[in-house]
Specification:
Layout lengths: L1 E2 L3 E2 L4 E7 L4 E2 L3 E2 L4 E4 L4 E2 L3 E2 L4 E2 L3 E2 L4 E2 L3 E2 L4 E2 L3 E2 L4 E3 L8 E2 L4 E5 L15 E6 L4
Parallel strand pairs: 1-4, 2-5, 3-6, 4-7, 5-8, 7-11, 8-12, 9-13, 10-14, 11-15, 12-16
Antiparallel strand pairs: 15-18, 17-18
Length: about 130
């Protein structure tokens, strides 16, 4: 699925699990207080806000791409949050706000080939757990 403009899911509660798997968010995407949702392979091409979100159960962002500003401040997870294989655009202005859950850092790509993603502009790095860095 593809969202062309800005979208907001403020206060959304999905009674079953909602999957935004391989979704593409071209504008800003805000998920404040969302519950029971997953984002495997999603592309956040604008800003992505997960401020104060409480995730019940496991939540996954595995394989997601973050192109712009990101906010995970105040996120609460009662089980586990996963960011395996997440790519982050690293050639953003220093003023671009980037807030990850505790225990994660952005690392540059290991090789020149890894700094590019087909179909995406910019230079890319990886989001890694600090205990793996």
């Amino acid at each position: 699925m593809r969202f062309h403009g800005n979208v907001g899911f403020n206060g959304a509660q999905f009674h079953d699990r909602a999957g935004f798997y391989e979704a593409r968010f071209d504008g800003g995407a805000v998920f404040n207080e969302a519950r029971n949702v997953g984002f495997y392979g999603a592309q956040f091409r604008g800003s992505a806000g997960f401020h104060g979100v409480r995730f019940h159960g496991n939540v996954g962002f595995n394989g997601a791409q973050f192109h712009g500003m990101i906010g995970f401040d105040g996120v609460q997870v009662d089980k586990r949050i996963e960011f395996e294989g997440v790519r982050v655009r690293v050639d953003m202005a220093h003023s671009a706000r980037r807030e990850w859950p505790g225990g994660y850092v952005i690392r540059g790509a290991a090789s020149d080939e890894e700094t590019h993603i087909d179909g995406a502009e910019g230079t890319w790095g990886h989001l890694l757990r600090t205990d793996e860095s």
